[in-house]
Write a structure and sequence with these properties.
This protein is of the alpha/beta class. The protein has one domain: Thiamin diphosphate (ThDP)-binding fold, Pyr/PP domains (Rossmann fold), CATH 3.40.50. Helices cover about 40% and strands about 15% of the residues. It has twelve helices and eight strands. Strand 1, helix 3 and strand 2 form a beta-alpha-beta unit. Helix 2 packs across helix 8. The longest helix is centred in the C-terminal third of the chain and has 21 residues. It is globular, with a radius of gyration of 19 Å.
């Protein structure tokens, strides 16, 4: 029996009412079961609203979005080559401005390969110019659409098809938020599909802010991470509580604020649910833990807070 709305906790009632609004990511799409990137898009495009144009480079989402008239997004979208999502978004923004259309959000939506690596130059150019666009990186930590190859977002110790055991990735994940913050753009933040209220608030903040904005959303990938499809949100939550993916925001490249307090769960709890880390020894897990702890300590210093 469905619980009456009046008896539900306030947060649950608000979430129910929000989900009941018009969906802009449609059913019947080609996303994999348990796709974190699909959940992320659903939340983001729902919050941005119908006055949104989505620019998608080569990535998993180029397939999920589909082609007109069978597209899965109920807002205009355009596919671009791998390297130029931000450049195309800048061009669309300029065309809208020339037509004096000010009420439309232009969003570049790219994976880690198209952001950390191949699209970094175009994104950097757009951010240096402070172009009025939102860039969202849905980060599944490898080139998943073409067969799980290593990217610079792939974490330390991870298996991929180009870093097979025993030659796993021996370098830490690139710190993209520091690179973005160095451009001194008005707003940048990390977000998680496991913390929906925080994600929604950050999307609203990005929508209301003028100039360049950036959101980095960790999106577990069941095939690439070798996990159960039902563990997607659990993994996203563990990434926050283990401090692997802390939730914070940066204003004007200088003011750091931590938004969710991690509970200090050991990184092993996150790693052991994923086949891509099955080969790690106790010493190697300790190395990952040490690297995460150092990164967290550095973030706390920037945010002017104790660990």
């Amino acid at each position: 029996m469905t619980t009456p709305k009046r008896d539900r906790p306030e947060t649950a009632q608000r979430l129910t009412e929000w989900v009941a609004d018009t969906e802009r990511f449609l059913p019947g799409n080609t996303a994999c079961p348990g796709c974190g990137a699909a959940l992320a898009m659903r939340h983001v495009v729902k919050e941005l609203g119908e006055r949104t144009i989505v620019v998608v480079p080569a990535c998993c989402w180029a397939i999920i979005a589909g082609q007109f008239p069978y597209a899965s997004l109920a807002v205009p979208s355009i596919n671009t080559p791998f390297a130029c999502a931000a450049a195309v978004a800048s061009g669309i923004r300029a065309a809208l401005d020339a037509r004096k259309v000010k009420d439309t959000t232009v969003m570049a939506w790219a994976g880690d390969g198209g952001t950390f690596d191949i699209g970094l130059q175009a994104m950097s150019g757009a951010f240096e110019r402070n172009d009025d666009l939102l860039y969202v990186c849905y980060d599944n930590e490898a080139y998943m659409n073409t067969g799980v190859q290593r990217s610079s977002a792939t974490p330390l110790g991870a298996w991929t098809t180009t870093t097979p055991v025993p030659h796993v990735k021996d370098r830490p994940k690139k710190d993209l938020l520091d690179i973005v913050a160095a451009h001194r753009i008005p707003y940048a933040a990390t977000a998680s599909i496991a913390f929906v209220d925080d994600l929604r608030r950050k999307v609203r903040r990005a929508k209301e802010t003028k100039g360049a904005r950036f959101l980095h959303i960790l999106c577990p990938c069941s095939p690439g991470w070798k996990t159960q499809t039902g563990h997607t949100v659990k993994l996203a939550r563990l990434a926050v509580h283990t401090k692997i993916m802390p939730l914070f925001e940066v204003e004007d490249g200088l003011e750091y604020t931590v938004n969710v307090e991690p509970d200090g769960t050991p990184v092993e709890e996150f790693l052991k649910l994923q086949g891509r880390f099955r080969h790690l020894s106790a010493d190697e897990i300790a190395r990952v833990q040490a690297q995460v702890d150092r990164t967290w300590a550095a973030l706390c210093r920037r945010a002017g807070r104790a660990r």
